[in-house]
Amino acid sequence: xxxxxxxxxxxxxxxxxxxxxxxxxxxxxxxxxxxxxxxxxxxxxxxxxxxxxxxxxxxxxxxxxxxxxxxxxxxxxxxxxxxxxxxxxxxxxxxxxxxxxxxxxxxxxxxxxxxxxxxxxxxxxxxxxxxxxxxxxxxxxxxxxxxxxxxxxxxxxxxxxxxxxxxxxxxxxxxxxxxxxxxxxxxxxxxxxxxxxxxxxxxxxxxxxxxxxxxxxxxxxxxxxxxxxxxxxxxxxxxxxxxxxxxxxxxxxxxxxxxxxxxxxxxxxxxxxxxxxxxxxxxxxxxxxxxxxxxxxxxxxxxxxxxxxxxxxxxxxxxxxxxxxxxxxxxxxxxxxxxxxxxxxxxxxxxxxxxxxxxxxxxxxxxxxxxxxxxxxxxxxxxxxxxxxxxxxxxxxxxxxxxxxxxxxxxxxxxxxxxxxxxxxxxxxxxxxxxxxxxxxxx
Length: 443
Hints:
The chain has helices at about 15-50, 50-85, 90-120, 120-125, 135-145, 150-165, 165-190, 195-215, 235-270, 285-290, 300-310, 315-320, 335-350, 365-380, 415-420, 425-435, and strands at about 275, 285, 325, 355-360, 385-390, 400-405, 410-415.
């Protein structure tokens, strides 16, 4: 079969205004749908698997972006090469550039699939997998790597198809893949109970359909015809193609670096920062099991020490089963103040460098609140404590107090300084002081 032009490429003949409309609208639709798909996908994973599933996808994402980077290096380069050669009237070279690029793209996808399978665990750790996320990341990544070949074709051929004057076809392939994924996600996750594996298989199913549609376009190119000779790999052609696609490659690799750094920074923050909210979560299980969510390998001695700091040890020992007392889901069988103190103890088990307490003693009586503050001051003085509270007694010992009014910072200073300089702070303090010990028995 000879390489001949079958139809004039509209990029060289059509009016610019019409071209912008024809090419821009499908591209915008594709980007919006792809963004919505990613959001919906994460919602399904979050609802069906939990935050560890979301974490696993974030860890594996840099690997898929590496594959996309290589496919865009080739695909976007081939698209530019196609346009340049058609502009020169050299349809034969244009066809060779496209065919050669498709072959290299497929080989690169297979090689990456094998490499990801072989080095999946060290890659997951490199990209920020913690010990609790790693099993989910391995499960998700193992399956996702099977689809690298198809995702490479999807990313790489999209640009070639657009450059051939078929942006709607390119859009259709992406839409089919995204819609397939969105349909299969809830089925695999919620109906079949496949968990994070279901999300991975749904992704691959969409990628395969997308890839088949794009591969079918090989026989539908408008500007060129591809024969067997076109698919032979040429180093000279690929050098030119790669030079044209290098900007897309660098952009994607930059994203990989940002994601890797961000994930690892978050891991570091996770290990050094603990937060206790006003309404924290307790899980169905014993008190000891709930506490070990803060530190999985915590010893009994560490657990007791943390509970003493949080003023929880005494009431826990009053239960017949002590630390083996069963907690109902959500902590339904303990009071609000008891729940908050267990959550504080859980956070302390991490021995964080920064402890954030967001109104986390609101359900605790003032006497116990004072004991907690005293224990923090005497036993963990080197821990930075950020306390958000409405009760001045909870924050009056702080080195620096920030007063907010209607979302705006009204004053900054120590307790004594604010009593002198801030009317709002002084008014709140006086009103709470007049109330006195009205909340002594609130638990």
